[in-house]
Amino acid sequence: MKKIFRSKQLQILIIGFVIAVLPFIISFKRATMTMLDTVVVYSIIALGFNILLGYAGQISLGHAAFMGIGAYMSAYITMQLHLPFLLSLLISGLVPMLLGLLLGLVALRLEGHYLAIATLGFGVTIQHIFKEWTAFTNGYSAMKPSSPSIFGFIFKSRESYFVLSIVILVLLSIFAYNLLKSKTGRALIAMRDSEHAAQAMGVSLLKYKLIAFAISAFYAGIAGSLHIHLLRYTDPNSWGIGLSLNLLAMVVIGGLASIEGSILGVVFIVVVPEIIKEIPVIGEINSLPTILTGISLILVIRFMPYGLARIMTQIKFRIQDNKVKSTAL
Amino acid sequence: MNIFFQNVIAGLETGSLYALAALGLVLIFRTTDVINFAQGEMAMFCSFIGFKLFTSLGLPYPVAFIVTIIFAVLFGFIIEKYVIRSVNKASVVSKMIVTLGLIMVISGLATALFGIDSHYLRKAITLDNLNIGGVVIQPNAIFIILVTIVIMSVLFYMIRKTLFGIAIRATAQNETTAKLMGIPVNRITSSSWIIATVLGAIAGLLIAPTTNVSTTMMGEIHLKSFIAAVVGGFGSFLGPVVGGFLIGILDNLVGYYITLKWKTVIVYGLLIVVLIFKPTGLFGKIHRKKV
């Protein structure tokens, strides 16, 4: 019995189930529910981004573009082509994935800063295309898709949407967990730690960079699709460098190379500003969340490079270290 | 033909500003191996200070300009000393992420302090336009181009010939060895951040008449300065200037002759193509990574 519960997949399932049921037990305000929904949606993209940055060690400052493509794809398919939501969800994951492969090819030749600059340029270009290609994106008049329906059931209430996105998040988390525990995951980590050493061990950089970019782009696309159907509104301004930076902050603050960390980071970035808003006087400064996110990002890198997810382990190690030192003296 | 030259001159003018910002990037990169993604934001903040000095305090333009540069010196010093140096031991990617965090902090602060409106700031030189054989040239454009070339030459001379330059190059090659040779590494990195911030502030003040002073004013220039640095190569000071001029001219010509709507996409496309085929840039040397 104990053995079964130790399986991480089952743990994810149980936690997911408990969280999904929660809103039906405690009834939240609609605004709180929207916030929780956004947390789940961003968790999906953060998870994908963590596979890229945390496990494969590849930086991208253009991931908002993938999320945007997913969102617009999904809206276009359900609104213009009148195809079912599930199909649009799948396609809006696959199209960014193809583009992700392309970016992976670019990453094969570049590293570190150059990759960051290239992906930054990619993100800005795509955002510009969103602005100009109004036939597809509707430009600043915005896309307003209706609530999604699966087999006749319409996910109109925030609670039902929460269940839907939790289900997808759980599936993708289990997939990520299995993937990262497999040969692929080990190859990604080897590549992150040293490309040359990995190559010497027979890890194909081409294959694994492509895999990392494709998977993270797929996750981003899915998140985009869920995002647009949740808020039922999007315009090109949502998919800029600001979102890409926030995404980076989520993953770094939460904890690189950690599935729980990705989600913790999202909670931090989404929920903290909402709490600050409630504080009188300071809460009135609109840009305060941005400032705080930036400061936390810097502080996390300075003081806890392993992120919120591993803070307990870090403290434990620190205490052990001190003990060793004191006995040595 | 006149229109062509008109576009080229306009391209040189904006290109100089890209080059100025790019020089700052390259200077910091060469001394500390960090790419300062917050360069544009820092320049924006300095421009706002300049704007406030000029309008709210009513200082004459040259005085406001100089006080802004003094502010930039302090600003660069503080950022380097209290933010960048504190993460000295982190990896290169982590340092880059710190500068990305700085973007958020500085732009957030600017929004909180100065609001989100955009304001007009006058040109540095407001003489009558020159007309040379049908090509109209603004004295301000000539001023901007000259400033860039002078700054580039000074930097070039400094890096090549002075003790400071040798110290910068030594620090770039190996920090520990540089320290052992008695080079005050901290002071060197501090000064390169200060110079870079000043360059950014100058670029910001000079671009202000075209873009207006606002929190988003440096967005495009900042990105294009990256492209300038990439196209020219991070390895030299000549590269970014040539890269800046190229981007500026190309930007104008594409906008005029091909399409205004898609010019940004085309220019960024060029960036990605250059990165793929010549990652070290036009003037860069091949940099082999040691295992």
Indicate how many domains the architecture of chain B comprises.
Answer: 1
Q: What is the helix fraction of residues of chain B, given as a range?
A: over 70%
CATH class category label of chain A: Mainly Alpha
Number of helices of chain B: 11
- Strand residue content of chain A: under 5%
Distance between the termini of chain A: 46 Å
Short key terms for the protein model shown above:
heterodimer; A: 329 residues; mainly alpha; ABC transporter involved in vitamin B12 uptake, BtuC; two-stranded antiparallel sheet; 1% strand; B: 291 residues; 2 strands; 2% strand; globular
Kindly describe this structure:
The complex is a heterodimer of chains A (329) and B (291). Chain A is mainly α. Chain A has a single domain (30-273), classed as Orthogonal Bundle (ABC transporter involved in vitamin B12 uptake, BtuC), CATH 1.10.3470. Chain A contains 15 helices and 2 strands. In chain A, strands 1-2 form a two-stranded antiparallel sheet. The termini of chain A are far apart. By secondary structure, chain B is an all-alpha fold. Chain B contains 11 helices and 2 strands. Chain B has helices at residues 2-32, 39-55, 61-84, 92-114, 139-161, 163-173, 175-180, 185-211, 219-232, 238-258, 263-277; strands at 130-132, 135-137. A two-stranded antiparallel sheet of chain B has the order 1-2. The model of chain B has no long low-confidence stretch (mean pLDDT 85).
